[in-house]
Amino acid sequence: ELYICALFVIGTNIVAMVFADLWAPSFLHTKYSISELCAVSYTQLIYTGCIIGTLVLCALCNGINKILLGIRLSLLMMLFVLSFLAYGNPSWPLFYLPIALFLLGFFGSADVLAFSCGASISTPKTAGMTASLINSLGMVGEPILQGGMGKVLKMNWDGTVNASGLQLYNTANYETALGVFIKLTIGVFIIACCYRVKKHTQVMDSAY
Q1: HSE on the CB side for 1, CA within 13 Å?
Q2: Which of 2, 15, 165, 168 meets the CB 3.0–4.6 Å disulfide criterion with 160?
Q3: CB of 84 within 8 A of CB of 100?
Q4: How far are the Cα atoms of 41, 103, 125, 141 from residue 138, in angstroms, in the given order?
Q5: Cα dihedral sign for 78, 97, 16, 158?
Q6: What's the 3-state SS for 31-74?
């Protein structure tokens, strides 16, 4: 079951952070024709949303004892946001864009709920080790996802480079890569919907 919790981490926080860390500004600049400075500023909203979401989602879902429900809803919202970014019309009003990026970070912070979920399948003595293993397994997914996204971008690259020799990708390349994120999110969402926790404690019996 630790692997399932690690998948929740990958499907939420790792997806959001890989997008933000690697090529979110380039994607926004290319697809939505905004300045590079504006694209970087918009990308920062992902991190802002993640900071706020960590506090809000953890307090809310733990407060009402609905951990798995929080994970499922977060994955569903991430699916909507990623689909909007990938397939949205660039001519739509730009004020939607910072809202979408903030929400991506906000619901991407649902990885904290995965640790709460992991705590419920461990004993008090093994809770710390369980959290460490979930974190380690989730972090393994980050370089794998980063490398995979790089290969996906290069698959249909037309060979264009800038004056410095850096590869330039078009909107279709980025949309294809986002499509992989979307498929991954769908897969993790299905797993979350089918998953049932075998609790080792009575404290969180009503959380699922």
Answers
A1: 18
A2: 168
A3: yes
A4: 27, 21, 22, 5
A5: positive
A6: HHCCCHHHHHHHHHHHHHHHHHHHHHHHHHHHHCCCHHHHHHHH
**Would you state the pLDDT for residue 178?**
92
- Return d(Cα 124, Cα 142) in angstroms, integer: 29
| Crossing angle (nearest 10°) for helices 111-120 and 127-155 | 140
DSSP per residue, 135-147: HHHHHHHHHHHHH
pLDDT beneath 50: ranges in the chain: 200-208
Please state, rounded to an integer, the average pLDDT across all residues of the chain: 84
Considering the entire predicted model, what is its pTM? 0.85
Rounded to whole angstroms, the Cα distance separating 197 from 205 reads 9
Give the residue among 52, 156, 29 at the shortest CA–CA distance from 102: 52
